[in-house]
Structure formats: structure tokens, C-alpha cells
Amino acid sequence: MAALQTSAPPAPSGGRERVRIRNKRTVAQRLRHDWPLLLLTLPALAQLAVFFYWPSAWNIIAFMDYSPHRPFWENPFVGFAWFERLFANPYFLPALLNTLKYAFANLLFLFPLSIVLALVMHSVISTKVRSLFQSVVYLPYFFSWVLVVTVFVQVLGSDGLVSNWLLGFGGDRMTFTSDPDSFLFLAWLQWAWKDAGWGMIIFLAALASINPSLYEAAAVDGASRWRRMWHITLPGIRPVIVLLLILHIGGILNVGFEQYQLQRNAVGFQTTEVLDTFVYYRSVIGTDGPSFGTAAGLFKGVIGLILVLVANNVAHRLGEQGIYQKS
Amino acid sequence: MATPSDRSPLRRRSLFKVAGLGAAGAAGLPLIAACGDIESGGGTSQATDGFDFLPTYKEWPLPVEPDLVGEPPNHPSGFTTYPDPVPAIEAVPSNSGTFEITVPMWGEAPSSDDPYFAAIAEASGGTTVNLRQADGNTFAETSVQWLNANEFGDGIMLFSWMLFAHPNFQETVVNSFYDLTDIVKGDISERWPLLAGLPTASWGQSVWSKDPADPETARVFGIPGSFSGGPGNAMFARTDLLEAAGQAMPTTVEELLDVARAVSDDANGRWAFGGTDYLTPQWFGLAGGDGWAYIDGKLVHNCERPEYTEWLEFRRTIWDEKLVHPDLPSGTLDGQALHKAGTIVFQLDGISWWQGFIDQTTAEGTGGTIAPLGALSAKGREPLVHVNTGVDSWTFLNKDLSKEQVEEFLDFANFCSAPYGTTEYELINYGIEGTHFTYGADGTPVFNELGTSVVQAPVNHKTMSGHVQQFLTGTPEMVQARFEYNASVKDFAEVNIFEGMRVEGPADFKSAGQVLIDQQNDIAFGRADLSAIPEMVETWKANGGETGREHYTAAYDKLHG
């Protein structure tokens, strides 16, 4: 937006030069000047309008006793009744706490893993090894959760590969995939296998933007590999790390659905009940309907917004760019 | 990078944001203040008999009588021979319409280019019915959204058990589907003799009221599927494996436990059981359906009865003693494959697995024999057997169709209702001779590979409407055995205490039921102790159980006076 506020050239006026700063152009002038740029934004705006703003407007049904079979205006307003029902449900709080537990575990253990993977990848010189490494860590992202869970059961389940191998040596069957106490570790293994490679990609892009001459200069000055990473690499990708961290925090309540739903029977609902499964079982299976689900979704959205604003504010206070550059 | 901010947390821009949000909130307050209570999700009850607007029943004479004569509905008759089929419809209509019907599909959907579908269109009089096949495992839940969005083509087929996934199916029915009443009312035997031959009870169960509180608003909205009685599920034993292990078929729960211990070998990868969650409650005398029994003058739910504890104790015992496949809780097991392989000896499945096992093991050459366990009970009680109590499914037509289109589809439904022993039945259920099946030595159609993949799909035109009579058919030995099995359990069939009424429970009751299922699994798989049951039941009562009792009691009182 800085381009819109450029100073106009000084206007000559007889003997006395009067400098007149024009702070603002008219809307018509702006349109005439920027129409190609505005045109370019239209597809994105249309996409946002159709798939984000229009559906977001329907959040209003969280305050209605909504039925899709009635004309919209005939749906009665019920105020915060659905929210009251949501908060009064005895299984809501455990689901929220589980959600936060998995979200923070993901943030603490998976987020750094992606950075580490990116650093390892960045340090590999051989193209062949890089390609192999990239494929191995990156491909599982495209597997469905059904496949991921099935593979884990086939390998680590009670009748899986490892269990049968242990039995052959006179051991016992593993109960790892059906033990509620170790589910957090199991979930972390599944995240690591499925998602860490994908998270690595963005950090790799950030690493590529670091000027190689910095490394050369540091090497000439005798900096070790570790010191180059600490003083060049990590500061170079720090803005990206902070940006992704803030975005991650904003979506912290979106821990996913399939992973927990698929393993609900295996380790029990008290371990796997997160907000999304809670809403599914209340709103779809339990037939509380779309208003209840929307109220829960709106709650998640509000919490996410607050967390993003707080995290961004903290980032700015720490001198980071955050999700936008402060003017 | 920006320099650290030293300004107040509530800056000018933030203040505007907060003010904006506050203004929006304030503007909404009057709106919110003038609000009512939530009225949806209270459940419904609907009478399903005593109507004067149903099609007049006119018996459709069978071309050939069954050689095994039972006592329908819980003991259906059967055919052990394959009769020469004769045409059921003499005056084939001349139609040309095309319909898109959404149906559930389990397994791989066949190509719509197969000659099977063209042959059906031609034989039915020119009506093309294209199947929009969607995953059967998620069909019940996803169909809710398709119906809300009116995106289900010209019609949708729903099994009766799928209705429980819908938040308010009564409201969905009357707002989404075509009201057939004026078309099918009275004598329809001239144009649709086979539909007129469907049991009146089937049509009665196809009725929903536009206003649940006003019986006068009741109308016919669905084309009923078959009315099949008798047990719909069974615990199938690998009789060949029992024989090899020197074990007899158990006749009580106690005997079953002994046999299970004898045939299980955890270290070598063989277990007695796969799933045991449904059907097994009947061994302990627990009710089917929504779990209500009328005891000592009031409705009592399964979880409130002492037999419930016995049932969970049984499930916990077989888990603790390693008589159940250890990966069962993962939900990733293919029970039928394990049963064929002999990895599990008892397979809990739909009754159709009897024929399915024979077909598959014959085709694969793997061998083995199975038979269902009879009417078991524990502690010497009178056995109880859960049986089907109504139509299996409905085909609902989109309300946006024209009357002429609906009438044409009813022509097609009439074609699909042709019973065993007719050429229409043979085409729909076996396909084209030489292309999908050949006649075996005993004259019975035997599927080839194409027939197995295309025609033997569990849902297609064969389930589009009910047959005028439902028979036991298939491999002669299986039909004979199933006939005898039905005869042996029919006297223990559970009486439906809501006969003549369809009751949809309140949302809270359904949610509490889901939590109860989760807690049952916790106990069954060793994650919680049996001592947790009283607390579970109290939680269930407080979170929807009592609401459910009130609702079902009101329905029961209305039905029984």
C-alpha cells in the first residue's frame, strides 16, 4: 500500500516554490493506476468469497434452531442455547483438554522435527541421496489416515509383524496400538511418519533463500558446521519459523478427525475424543444437528482467532515480523 | 525486521477492532434477547398401520409354490430346486425415461456399461435406472447431507437401519420426497399388480406424517423393500474346524465358552471370536432395537438390567482369556477373510454370510463348512432371538419429479417386485445366461466371474422394491439347513413391543446411547472395570436415558392404551 502514498512532484508557482504534498489520490485515480493489479486479485477474491466468506456468514445458524427444510427466515433464533448445551455437555471439557493436549504435543514434537528434517536435507550434498531422502519422508503425507492406521496395526499391532516376531522368540504380543497410556507416543509416531516430511518443504524453501556467500565467508573465517547453522541458517529461517508457528497456533484446535476416529475403538473414546470427534458423535451420530456443530465450530474459530492475535502480538514484541509487517 | 513495540497493548487500531466487535455484539443482543428454546431433536413417533389410503392388497398368484413351506415372516418358505422361470408381467409398458437413483455400495462398483443394466432397461419396458453408488460404510451419515442439499438425484435407497443416522428423518421425508399417496391409493392392481401384492404392512411402514402431532397428515412417501422376517444376523461356526477339534456345536453360553477355550490358540494365531458386540446381547435376554423392554409395568433399558452386567462380563472374559482376535479393537480386521482362513472360528455376521461363505470358498477352492449357532442362552434361561421386524429398505423419489415420472418409476418398481420363479427375478438376480451365469447340474444358476462382480452386488435393482413374497433361495443344502434353523429358533423370536409404530428417539437419548457403546467397549477390551457399570448407567440416565424413557413410554402408552 506504500505505492499509493508516494509524494507528488513539487509544483512550480512563480517566484516562490511551494511544495505541496498530496497524501491521497482519489479512488478513481487509484483504480486507473492499479487496475491491472486489482484484476489479478479478482480470482483470489472470488475464491475467498465463495468458499470462505459466504460459508462463514452461515455461522449465524449457531444462534438458530436451524432446519434446512424451512425457509431461512423461519428458523427461530435461540440465542446462545446451543453454546449453553455445548458447554454443559459433560464430555465437552474432556474433549477440549484432549484437543489441547494433542495440539501442543504436535507443536512441541512435530514442528521442530520438520525443521530438523529440513536442516538434514539441506546439508545433504548428493542429489541421489537427497531425492531418496525426500521421497521417503515426503510421500507418506499423501497416504490417507486409514492407510496410516492400518500400516501401524499391521506392523505394531497385537497380531502384527513385530508381535509375531516377538512370539517367535518366546516373547509376548505387543499391545502398543491398543494401549491408551501410550497413545500419545503412537500418535506422535504417526504424525512424524505422515506429516513431518510435508512440514519440511516450506523450511527447505526458506533455507534456499539464504545467501550462500554467508556460508562461504563464515567457512573462510573458520566457523564450524555447527556455528554456521546456529549463526546463519537458523537466523535466516527464523521469520518463516515464527510465521508458521503463529499460523499453527491459530489452528491449534484443528487437530484432525480421522486419526482419532479410526483409533477410537482401539484405545477408547476417553483417549481419542477431540473436539472434532465430539462434534461428529453429537451432531451427526447423536443427531443434534447442524446448529450444534456450527456452534462448536464457531467456538473453535474464536479461540483460534484469539490465539493468532496473541501470538502475533508476542512476535511483534519480540521483534519478529509475525504474520504481517508492522508499519 | 520490525523493532519491538513499546506501545500499550490496546492501541488505536486494536481499539477500533474491539469497538467494532462490541458494536456487532451489541447490535445482536436485542436479537438474541428475543430468542426461544431449542425445539428440534425431541424425537417422533409414527403409527404404521390402520390407514385407509394404502394400496389395496391383492394377492399375486405365484407361478410356482415353494417346496419348503414355512410360517412367514419369521420362518419363511424356501426353494431347494430351481423352477423354470415364467414371465411375471404380461403387458410390458412402453417407457423411455432415465432415472438416477443413489444407492449404497459395499465393494467395487460395477461398470454401468455392462450388458446387465441394458438388459434390465429393455426387459422393464425401456426405463433406464442408473445407479449412483456411494460407499455403504458411510452412506447413512453422508446421506443426511445429500438429502439436506437435495442432491440425491431422482431418488435414494435407504435401509431401515440407516434412518437412525438422520437427525429428524420425519422432517426430511415430508420435505424431500415425493408424496406417493394419490398415485398408489386404492386398487393399483391393474397397472402395478406386483406392487399391489406387497404386504399391506410394508406400505404401512412407508407412511410418515407431515405433522407428527396430527395423524390426519399421514402420507405414503416410500416404495417399500422386502418384508423379511426371521433372524437377520447370526454367529456362524466353522463346523469343520469344530469337528476336527473334537468339539460339538454349543447349545448354551456356558458350552460356547468351553468350546471357545478349546479351539483358541493365541500363540499360534487362532481365536474363537472376531466381533461380539451385536447379537450377543440376545444370549442374555437383552432387548433388540433401541434396547427397551416392558418389565413390571414400565419400560426398562438394557443397561438397567442385571443381564447387562452378565453380557459385559462375558465379553470381558473372552477378551481376558485371549479368545478374541487381539486386533479386533483396531477395526481393521476383515472378519470374513479370517473366518474363511480359519483364523477365527466363530464369525458374527449378517445371515447372508451363510450363502456368501459357500459361494466364496467354492470359487476359491478353499473349502470349509459353516452353520449358525442356535438359540443360545445363559444360566438356563429361556432363549431370545432378535428378528427382523419390518421392511428392509425404502426407495424414496425426489419431490421434484413429475407425476408421469413417478408413475413410470412405479412401472419399474413393479418389475423389480417379481418373485422367485419369474424371468424378471432371474434377470435381476442372476443376470444374462451365458454372460453372467450358467445353469449348474441341478439347474440352479451359477455365477461366473463377471456375474459375481456385477450382478451379485448387495444393492442394485434387486433391492429397488420388495418382492411380493420373500423366500429362502440359494444352494439347496444351505436352503434346507437355513429352513431348519429358522424353524428351530422361531419360537424364541422377540416380540416387538412397538409393533405398529415407528419411534425415533430424542437426540439426547441417541447421544447418551453412543457414549454407552463407547463405555461398553472400554469394559469389553479391558480399559475399564465391570465395577464402572453403575456409574455408566447413572451417566446414561442423566444425559438422555430418562428423556428417552419418557419419550418411548409416551409412544408405548399411545400404542397400548
UniProtKB/TrEMBL annotation, chain A:
Q: Which ranges form a coiled coil?
A: none
Q: Main location per UniProt?
A: membrane
Would you tell me the Gene Ontology cellular component terms? plasma membrane
Instruction: State where the protein is found.
Output: Cell membrane
InterPro entries per the UniProt record, alphabetical? MetI-like, MetI-like_sf, UgpAE/MalFG_permease
**Keyword entries, A-Z:** Cell membrane, Membrane, Transmembrane, Transmembrane helix, Transport
- What range(s) does the ABC transmembrane type-1 domain occupy? 96-311
Q: How does it sit in the membrane?
A: Multi-pass membrane protein
Q: Name one GO biological process term.
A: transmembrane transport
Q: Which residues cross the membrane?
A: 35-54, 102-125, 137-157, 196-215, 236-257, 292-311
Asked if the keyword Transport belongs to this entry, the reply reads yes
Q: Family, per the entry? A: Belongs to the binding-protein-dependent transport system permease family.
What is the designated name of this protein?
Putative aldouronate transport system permease protein
TrEMBL record, chain B:
Superkingdom, according to UniProt?
Answer: Bacteria
Q: Which Gene3D superfamilies is this protein grouped with?
A: Periplasmic binding protein-like II
Family, per entry:
Belongs to the bacterial solute-binding protein 1 family.
Question: Which PANTHER family does its entry note?
Answer: ARABINOSE-BINDING PROTEIN-RELATED, SN-GLYCEROL-3-PHOSPHATE-BINDING PERIPLASMIC PROTEIN UGPB
List the protein's name: Putative aldouronate transport system substrate-binding protein
Protein's organism:
Glycomyces artemisiae
The record lists the lineage as: Bacteria, Bacillati, Actinomycetota, Actinomycetes, Glycomycetales
